Each structure stands twice: as structure tokens, then as C-alpha cells.
Amino acid sequence: MASLPNGHTAKKLDIVVVGGGLVGSLEALYLAKRGHRVRLYEYREDIRETPQARGRSINLALSIRGRRALKDVGLEQHMIENHGIPMVGRMIHKLDGTTYAIPYDARTNQCIYSVGRNYLNGMLLKESENYENVERYFNHKLIEANLKKGSLTFTKTDTKEEVKVNADLVIGADGAFSAVRKAMMKQPLFDYSQKYIEHGYLELCIPSNANGGFQMPANYLHIWPRGTFMMIALPNQDCSWTVTLFMPFTNFKKLDSKEKLLQFFEKYFPDSIPLIGKKKLIEDFFSGSPSPLVSVKCRPYNVDDKALIIGDAAHAVVPFYGQGMNAGFEDCTLLDQLMQKYKDDLPRVLEEFSDTRWKDTYAISDLAMYNYVEMRDLVTRPSYRIRKAFDDL
Ligand code: FAD
Question: What is the pLDDT of residues 176-211, one digit of tens each?
């Protein structure tokens, strides 16, 4: 078992984390490092043993918030050096097929990294196996929670058996449609709002070239901004690209035949057709359906000293600012800092987290909404080219 840092509690807490996605599996590591008993319950099978599910972004942009958290649990270097693909700026694809780059930070060369969701999640789960104080339970769906008592009921998805569990602390990291949050909503003074935007997303793929290399310059987040809709592409380790088309659902509906789809791509994304390939474009487009995008704001994040929600469960955001996972990872960092500060005294830790964190997550949520307009439209406006011209001086 890894050594414990100074300042950990004398009392070992019994903590249940609901949700073994990106944020829950990271949180389990932070808590394990503090020496607590951690039981991680995940609805789905072990992600390391299942093929990539379509409809959940295949890759993500990891930024400084996320890197910081990975560093705390000893995984940043591995992630960046062995798996992350640096993206130093945006590469804009114009209608005529020409491109130009807008660096994120030409002065100090800061960048974001494209990372695989499954790889990152699997790495976090694998790391948790190095801690004897972490237990992992897959195929367990939370169906009922009495958060004031810290008692939970799960159903095993394979045998349908009910499993009852008690904990000193319940941490809900069970995503945008969180069952823990649903239980919190019964508490008086719990504020909640959600918004579905009118746009959905569908993932396509640009395969590697005949030599197994990248078909486009690899170290950029590629964007095809088209005013009311856009397409983006992030690089993968195998030199393919995950391409995401964001568009109003009404537009998706209109593309109901191969001919209409090809006409649409020839008009708006002509340079992408030879990259994706006509056959693959048709196959991938019609084998999936666009997924919705929801934004959730709520508070407080805790119920007394017994329960807390983090990650998308507390603040699902639209993906245009690339900060959903990063902000969720930052939740784990901040929670750990408070546990350190208050020596794991849960009433103080949870109250301060809840009182302070929401302001930043509400701001990230608003920025994410704004950034869709920026990425699909404003990025092409002259002011950016003017700024780029100054950067180049
Ligand atoms: P999730 O990843 O949703 O994990 C929740 C887990 O809880 C799941 O494993 C689920 O199976 C489990 N669960 C759910 N219900 C139950 C239950 N009842 N019982 C037990 N377990 C349960 N973020 C970035 O930072 N950068 C990006 O570039 C980025 N790109 C994105 C692109 C798209 C298209 C989308 C949709 C999102 C993107 N995000 C990005 C956001 C990011 O995916 C989320 O913020 C992140 O996945 C949140 O992690 P989480 O662990 O909180 O939730």
C-alpha cells in the first residue's frame, strides 16, 4: 500500500463512491492515499473489459486542472508522456478547404492534451488496485439512497440481487443523471436546474493514412466552424481522429438519406470527405444517432456530513469549453485540500466545499455555453486574425 501523506486522519473513514467513471475512480485514489476504506460502486462492467461504447466522447482535452489532479495521484507524467497528444492550438478549416492555425499560447507554449476516455478511466482503476483499502464493485446500480443515514441500496445488474451498504460518507460521482443527486433533491432548499441545448452531437472518424500515420497535422484541435453548427476533430494514439459534428437536432433530422448527407458534407465540409472516406462517412453517420447535451446547475453539493456530489453529478456542462472532466478532477483536488486542512473533519470539509465550489462551477458552465458560439462562429471573425497577426510579431 502507498505511504500516507502527513495530515491524514487518525480515524479511518468508511467511504462509498458511487460511479467509477473518470471522476469517481480518481476520487477513490485521493481517498485511498489518505488511508480511508473506499468502496467504489459502478453501474457498468469494468471499462477495461468492454469495447468502447459509442455516444460518449472517445477522447477528451486534458488541461491544467486535470493534469494537476493526475499529478497528485502520481499519474500525470505517465499520461502526458505515454498517452497524451499535445494540441498547441486550433486549426481552422475554411469552406474552401484551406486551413490556418490559432495557437493557444504562442509565448509560453502551453497546450492541452488529447487523451482517450477509456485509457484514462482504465488507468485510474488499475492504479486503485495498488491500494489494499480500495474495493471495486462493477455491475452495481444505485437504486435507492437515504443520504442522511449514509445507507444505499444497489441492484446487481447480472443477478438482480439487492445489496445494502452503509457508509460514513457517500460520494456521488455518478454523472449527469446522478441517482445520488436525485436523492438529494428531496432535501429542502436544494436548488436545481437543467437545460438541454437544441444541438446534439454525433461522432465520426478520420482513419489513419495508408502508412499508419496522421492524415492532418496532429498537434491541433481541428475545427470546421460554420456559424450555426461546427465539426471538430481530436487526435487519437492510433493516428485516427475522433470527429464530432455538433448541430441542431432539426438539421440532423433533415439528413435522412445518403445523397443528402453527401450533399451536406460537399457544401460545408468538402475537405473532410476524402479524409473520412465517402463509404465510412455514410456508414458511421447512419449507424449512430445524435446524442443530446445537457447542462446541470445545483446546490448545495452536500447533505450534512454524510453525502457529497462531485463531477458531472454536481455540474454537468456542455462540452465546448473542454472543462467537464477537468473541473470534475479539480473537485477531487479541492476536496483533498480541504480534508488535509481540516484533518478529515467531515462537517467542516463538506460545508466549505459546498459553500465555495459552486461559484466556479456555475462560471465554467456559463463559459461552456458561450464557447459554443465562439467555436462555431466567432473564431472566424477578423478580430482573431488581428490578434494572431500581433502574436506573430
Ligand atoms: P461520468 O463520466 O458520466 O461517469 C459517471 C459514472 O457513474 C459512469 O461510469 C456511470 O456508469 C456511473 N453511474 C451512473 N449512474 C449510476 C448508478 N445509479 N449507480 C452506479 N453507478 C452509476 N470534458 C473535458 O474536460 N474535456 C473534454 O474535451 C470533454 N469533451 C467532451 C465531449 C463530449 C462530446 C461530451 C459529451 C463530454 C465531454 N467532456 C469533456 C465532459 C466529460 O465527458 C465529463 O465531464 C466527464 O465524463 C464527467 O465525469 P464523471 O465521472 O463525473 O461522470
Answer: 999 999 999 999 999 999 999 999 999 999 999 999
Q: Does residue 300 have a cis peptide bond before it, meaning omega lies within 30 degrees of 0?
A: yes
Superfamily of domain 14-86+112-194+294-378: FAD/NAD(P)-binding domain (3.50.50.60)
pLDDT at residue 269 greater than cutoff 60: yes
d(C-alpha 84, C-alpha 61), whole Å: 9
User: Quick one: pLDDT at residue 2?
Assistant: 41
How does 215-234 read in b/e, with b if 16+ C-beta sit within 10 Å?
Answer: bbebebbbbbbbeebbbbbb
The residue that leads in pLDDT, 173 or 378, is: 173
Domain boundaries, the chain: 14-86+112-194+294-378, 198-292
Predicted local distance difference test score (pLDDT) of residue 384: 53
CA of 20 to the centre of ligand 1 (A): 10
Least confident of 10-14, 22-26, 81-85, 308-312: 10-14
Which atom of ligand 1 lies at the shortest distance from residue 203's CA? 34
Q: Which atom of ligand 1 is nearest to the CA of 23?
A: 51
Pocket, ligand 1, Cβ cutoff 6 A: 18-24, 41-44, 57, 60-61, 141-142, 173-175, 179, 201, 244, 311-313, 319, 322-326, 328
β-bridge partners, 151:
146, 166
